[in-house]
């Protein structure tokens, strides 16, 4: 390329988020959003994290002075109950957004990062449907020859809880065999969550999943330090196309 | 939790699969495995990630062994203890003031123990999982905690004055812990005390006053169950987290108090018996025994939730592997939940147990049947993504900066860093810095002005706001002022959004609250949104950013008519090598049948600061090739 086109550049997180949201839109999902300044209720309690429960330690939380009971959301799952309060099932939503964890930062950990949540509620939505949806998503995102596997996991707002791993195909010349990589968390929506949102768990059931965008951006783009995503440094951003 | 492979093996007659095979089985059917380390002596340490749903029974070798038993369809060999030998009448009493905090207290007084080193096997097992050996009594209580998941405590009975009481701490009371820390107590905490003062912060840490030492002759054993959420609060307040508090926090079955007690007493009787050794009568304060939990699990729910049809035989054989007692009803099962499984309370919990043991890999993926749902994505997302495209088209780069800093209206509680104490209240404050730092790289980036935008949330005293910030900084001489460029792009945005942004542009940075923009912009259909976000590329391979300075050089050359820009470019690229990171044409003109091309060259290394000399050599190489072509370097 001799002449460079005069164009702007979209942030790597935008590129990955759009890919994920696009794949899910093609599967019939609607995009929903939610607040970053959130109530304990929607971020934790309504999601079946009791007060003073060790499950809360799984997500170090930013609490704010002057806003008692409010926090910076630790997960885009905060939109689950919010959305269901305003919409009757059946429903199929994808929720991209920024989340926060009060943790020390290093090359692979940031205090802020992006998640995309998926939520499907219907009359007989099953784990088999979850499997189909995530298989389709992972193959679209990482290639048709990628393998996936479900194994048990724990998140208070799903039951059963699932961890999803993926494995890239072995390359003939590579000495090191490819390993399973944890790619997302998922599960069947806990009846308490439906109930907390005013949805009757005797009639409705569903699945939810959450995927970390920054990690996928790092994997896909070969970025070695997650902090480069938030440095405002165009030496990083300008390596990505605009439109 | 770190577990010893040999320790797990002690629960089985037959040999277990190899440590790595075992780890794989656990990983796909039960718990995530962090690591497997083979250690000298034929043991292996498996680091099992036990999450809060199973911390009440599996922060323990026996719990994990039972899980392995389920997965391998094997029965665990568990010792049965008999305490009838040499029981005497030496009792003690304990007063439990709050039975909601302390649901069970099992204890015993043991006379004439011999405090020595532990037997080798106990020392070894503890060492394998990273626990230091202290003496046989303390080691046995530790061993039992890691074996059964039940924290235990031993007091030197001769240092206890009067009777034991489990009570709320008094304001102003203090305790010196076993590790010599002075801790101030208050009425939100519970202690185990004697007539004089606290002997332990209940469930968290023992005190030094009744410590078991080499001189100890007589001991009191405590095996109690305390309320998890109170222990959690106390542990946070005093800033002491222990293996004990971690287990109590997650809740412990009352049954485990007796299991732990029996094992502790039996091991002490076996390994710490002194002359005239006797065991007193067991004290068991358990005013409200746990009720049995029976969960009704419908087969239809199992099938609809997992999306797989299991036969009666398959379901029942999994129940049998768990050792669940169940009763078949019409289309459902009444499953009696084992006392230690505090996590199994609703039918979905039981279904998960069946699903994971059956194996999720056996569940066939099924597309979601058509549902009566018409996607209507939120306008907020549609407008924001549209704005990103419009700005990118206008030459702006999208940045994301930090939510936290030292400026803002709202403070963070417990900030992770001293310069990140506040949540940003605007985007523009940091934009000045973003513009300036990027202006320094203009040549490297090949830009004549820096154009950036950010869309993000901020938090003010009145709540969160969604903002757009735009900034321009001219780097090269430009007739068009920065504010003019912003005015232009705002006009373009207004046109394309169908909503007039009447923001005043006085400077080179503007900030716009997006709430009204989102509400009043033209509607965007689902199909249009899909098109907007189709501008996404996940195949970019990035190059790392170098932290070394870059060096700028120019080169201009006269070439004969017909020479293309690319002919010149190719020579520069080839001769420049890998240190030449950017080549940009900045001037081209014709005169007397010749064409002059002038290029900016940017050099940078990922390993070092480049010297003038080495750049000169590269420039010399390029010139030499130009001259060989018969061109004239200007």
Automatic annotation (TrEMBL), chain A:
EC number(s) recorded for this UniProt protein: 6.1.1.20
Q: Which residues form the Aminoacyl-transfer RNA synthetases class-II family profile domain?
A: 16-241
Please indicate if the UniProt record lists ATP-binding as a keyword: yes
Q: Which Gene3D superfamilies match?
A: Bira Bifunctional Protein, Domain 2
Q: Name one GO molecular function term.
A: phenylalanine-tRNA ligase activity
Q: Which reaction does it catalyse?
A: tRNA(Phe) + L-phenylalanine + ATP = L-phenylalanyl-tRNA(Phe) + AMP + diphosphate + H(+)
Which biological process terms from the Gene Ontology are attached to this UniProt entry?
phenylalanyl-tRNA aminoacylation
Q: Where in the cell is it found?
A: Cytoplasm
Which InterPro entries does this UniProt record tie to the protein? aa-tRNA-synth_II, aa-tRNA-synth_II/BPL/LPL, Phe-tRNA-synth_IIc_asu, Phenylalanyl-tRNA_Synthase
Q: Pfam families from the xrefs?
A: tRNA-synt_2d
Q: Which UniProt keywords apply?
A: Aminoacyl-tRNA synthetase, ATP-binding, Cytoplasm, Ligase, Magnesium, Metal-binding, Nucleotide-binding, Protein biosynthesis
TM segment ranges:
none
GO terms under cellular component: cytoplasm
What name does the UniProt record give this protein? Answer: phenylalanine--tRNA ligase
Automatic annotation (TrEMBL), chain B:
Please name the Pfam families in this protein's record: B3_4, B5, FDX-ACB, tRNA_synthFbeta
Keywords, A to Z?
Aminoacyl-tRNA synthetase, ATP-binding, Cytoplasm, Ligase, Magnesium, Metal-binding, Nucleotide-binding, Protein biosynthesis
Please state the protein's primary subcellular location. cytoplasm
Statement: the UniProt record of this protein carries the keyword Acetylation: no
Specify the B5 domain's residue ranges. 290-365
Keyword flag rRNA processing: no
| Residues noted as binding Mg(2+) in the record, renumbered to the chain | 343, 349, 352-353
Entry's localization field:
Cytoplasm
List the Gene3D superfamilies hit by this protein, alphabetically: 3.30.56.10, Bira Bifunctional Protein, Domain 2, Ferrodoxin-fold anticodon-binding domain, Phenylalanyl-trna Synthetase, Chain B, domain 3
Reactions this protein catalyses:
tRNA(Phe) + L-phenylalanine + ATP = L-phenylalanyl-tRNA(Phe) + AMP + diphosphate + H(+)
Q: Which GO terms describe its molecular function?
A: ATP binding; magnesium ion binding; phenylalanine-tRNA ligase activity; RNA binding
Q: Which domain of life is it from?
A: Bacteria
Q: Which GO terms describe its biological process?
A: phenylalanyl-tRNA aminoacylation
Q: What is its EC number?
A: 6.1.1.20
Cofactor(s) listed in the protein's UniProt record: Mg(2+)
**PANTHER family (UniProt xref):** PHENYLALANINE--TRNA LIGASE BETA SUBUNIT, PHENYLALANYL-TRNA SYNTHETASE BETA CHAIN AND LEUCINE-RICH REPEAT-CONTAINING PROTEIN 47
Q: Quaternary state and partners of this protein?
A: Tetramer of two alpha and two beta subunits.
Q: What is this protein called?
A: Phenylalanine--tRNA ligase beta subunit
Q: Which organism is it from?
A: Candidatus Zambryskibacteria bacterium CG10_big_fil_rev_8_21_14_0_10_42_12
Q: What is the lineage of its organism?
A: Bacteria, Candidatus Zambryskiibacteriota
Q: What would be the name of the gene that encodes this protein?
A: pheT
